[in-house]
Amino acid sequence: MSPEKMPPRVRERLSALMAHVPRNPGELRAFLAGLEIAVPAGPALPTSDGPMAYLAHAFFEGRPFGGGVRRYGPADCVVWASRGGGKTFLGAVATVLDLVFKPGIEVRVLGGSLEQSRRMQEHVARLLAHPALAFLVAGRVTERRVALRTGSRAEVLAQSEASVRGTRVQKLRCDEVELFDRGVWEAAQLTTRSAPIRGPWGGWVRGSVEALSTMHRPHGLMWEVVGGSRRAGEEGADGAPRRLFRWGVVDVLGRCGEEFRCAGCGLWDECGGRAKAPGAGGGGHVAVGDALAMKARVGLAAWESEMLCLRPRRADSVYPEFDARVHVADWEEPGARDELAEGPGRALVVGGMDFGFRGPTVFLLGRVGADGVLRITHEHAASGNTMGEHAAAIRALCARAGTGLPDWIGVDPAGRQREHQSGLSNIAVLRGAGLTVRSRVLSLPEGIEAVRARLRPAEGGPRLLVHARCVGLVSALERYHYAPERPESVAPVKDGPDHAADALRYLVVCLDRAHRAERGRYA
Prior knowledge:
By secondary structure, the chain is of the alpha/beta class. It has 3 domains: 3-247, P-loop containing nucleotide triphosphate hydrolases (Rossmann fold), CATH 3.40.50.300; 249-314, no CATH class; 324-515, Nucleotidyltransferase, domain 5 (2-Layer Sandwich), CATH 3.30.420.280. It contains 17 helices and 16 strands. The strands form 2 sheets. An 8-stranded mixed β-sheet has the order 3-4-2-5-6-1-8-7. Strands 9, 10, 11, 12, 13, 14, 15 and 16 form an 8-stranded mixed β-sheet that branches. Strand 12 (361-368) and strand 13 (374-382) form a beta hairpin. Helix 15 crosses helix 17 (498-515).
């Protein structure tokens, strides 16, 4: 509806409201305070971003303020925040700000479930019921859509590709991305269009996709989205496609009262007294008593993952012992075989291999030093190649690495089976290419336990390290998991990470057999 067609009283109130459109983050926070929405001015921790930073980014379309920065940041953004950190509510606040001050804007809300989307819509409805804004609403606010007299509209979308693919809007807010179907997320990336709506942000409202979520699945969808995003000032931030905003429970803690003492407080390690210091945290919506109670109910892994936003939770991981900070390094390679001596005068160079065709065939190259530590130095992974082509690739990789051929390669015992057309087994092809091959019959749980024992021995440091260049193996060790819906199963899920993990397992069980006189049979 154009202003000329509005009732005079509505037109006057709208004119007065638009005359006070916030022009900077400080004015934006003051406007929200007038609506009885308290948002902490900044983060409590230097490693975090406060919720206000996200709201300012969304409202001002990535426009820079202060710091000498002149270029706009990316329009798309990611909010990685704790459970109960206010993501859904703040997404609703950002939606209302867009609707009120950007006439004609189209906003869509897409949740991990329809119920999640409706939760944000409920917040939108309550915010627009405020006396300062209610006059703007055209008609009735439903559980799926709302329209303003200015032509602005917001609507809830169902979690389906069909629903998303027909959308052409300025803003798409995706709530709880961790629960999204991957196909829906991919379809969502093509839904937005910029529009010429002028304001303190500039002459245009930029088409953008926002992702708001916790992150608890190792290498899940949210992990991938966060991995391609950067906080302001981080290395690579200028070229990142999305701006990252991150906060944990400490950044949204309420003011800590006299009833709590810092000495002996269960939140001291996280808070460090910040919730008591005026202007340095506090003022959030999570009560200190509630945060203490929540921490007492869960284990450290859940607390660090879902409340502090430090790393994904690994409750279903096959190798929870694996920690990239401990087991991954970028060490300098030795120049000759004998610089990592396993026996008298020479190093032991070993390999591990998992056979595939549609799925990748993975080969890992490693060294064992006099200290008994297995260091995985190189990897090869390819799909659709013949075993002869893989054998040639292994020889080429070893030549580039300067190791010479491996002393042996540990493989799946099933590699003894003959292929129907050639009549040769995978092991026979590798041996025909001059490679020494071993396999050991050992149950899957026993093999997994052998790898675990090297990652975290009962005493001493780790006996398995991975070079930083082996990104496939690092990803596999983090992602390899059991099915959460089948807690009784001891078989990991075969959904991609299993190939590199299996190659490592075959290597380790053969290496352990070579070092200890245990039962086992080599092919």
